[in-house]
Amino acid sequence: MPATLITNIKLLVNIREENKLLRGKELANLSVIENAFLIIEHQKIAAYGAMENLVHHTETITDVIDATGQIVLPCWCDSHTHLVFATSRENEFIDKIKGKSYAEIAASGGGILNSAKKIALATEEELFDSAWQRLQELIQLGTGAIEIKSGYGLSVDAEIKMLRVIKALKQQAPIPIKATFLGAHTYPLEYKENHQGYIDLIIKQMLPIIAKENLADYIDVFCEDGFFSKEETITICKAGMQYGLKPKIHANQLNLSGGVEAGVALNAISVDHLETMDDTTIALLASSNTIGTLLPTAAYFLRMSFQPARKLIDSGCAIALASDFNPGSSPSGNMNIVTSMSCVQMKMLPEEVINAATINGAYAMELENEVGSITKGKRANLIFTKQVPSLAYLPYAFGSNLIDKVMINGKIIA
Ligand code: NIG
Ligand code: FE
Known about the structure:
Layout: E1 3-13, E2 32-41, E3 44-50, E4 61-66, E5 70-74, E6 76-78, H1 90-97, H2 102-107, H3 112-121, H4 124-140, E7 143-149, H5 156-172, E8 177-184, H6 195-212, E9 218-223, H7 230-242, E10 246-251, H8 259-265, E11 270-273, H9 279-286, E12 291-294, H10 296-301, H11 309-314, E13 319-321, H12 335-346, H13 350-357, H14 359-363, E14 382-387, H15 393-396, E15 403-408, E16 411-413
Helix pairs in contact: 4-5, 5-6, 6-7, 7-8, 12-13
Bound molecules: N-(iminomethyl)-L-glutamic acid and fe (iii) ion.
């Protein structure tokens, strides 16, 4: 059987014989091998170890890649994105520079509603093509698994259109994709005074089609003051759970919204954002199985306080990092920036950010058996860095492109 051998790897990072969701202190444990080899068979990691233990299977090795001076790590697992959208929103960016807040822009028909107007006009092909291009860029930046949400449709047709685009991306992309239904992203204008009407539309009309066409893995709600209340969040998530969709919730971005409480009560896979947390909410999250997914580039872009990562980790929470790529609050899906920003602004250690953006991100998409670490049998989705002095150099030297090449399923992506 043909095999690829990677030799002379300066540092092979995040070696795990067994999967484990990392919480608290465990996040700082990052197992590495210096001067390592790695063998790939059938697109998967087949073997690895120190160069001195390399047993030559020369008859099966068809390709050799010399990684002298390079660090090799598992690709980023980006567990929260809104990758499918019709147009960018740099006009709102200017409005924010001039002093408007995110909530003010949303309240005046901008924000999510602005994106929804554009989605209504776009065809499935157009949405697919632009999302595909973004995905290619992200793969080149090292993303090897991704979650994508709907939520800019806000009508039966447009939500289903978005989810069909995500399904097509899933079928054609070389990396694993998870789809999340976020019909409850905001109330469309015509339901502004009729919340129950829109919730009924989600539950009685959207969810049955989504289930029938198998269009989503997860259900999400933007649980926030001025958007969906804690009670509404629970109602919508429970309806999704009836169809087998597990919750991943937008929680505590702008306020103490009750989103974390809802997520923990529902045993959600993750509660995401968490800019606004108090001690009680942190303790609740720490005592649960729910992952706290931090989205620092959204906090940065909206000029908000960063998530209290140190407090969350020191309290024993399981933390993941994701990009939140979307046109309104994080117009970048670059996980290299996410990890660097997490070190600088949230005082996470390089080891912690790598774990949070790989293995814990994989858990936040239930992809831990496929990606997220150097483990036999997982996909060979790997980042090869340029020649760098150390692992810490990666988040330290922010803004430089330190990736030499990316391998997906054992194949180098140009
Ligand atoms: O995760 N917070 C809600 N949703 C997105 C932003 C949506 C938008 O502004 O388009 C987020 O930040
Ligand atoms: Fe988001």
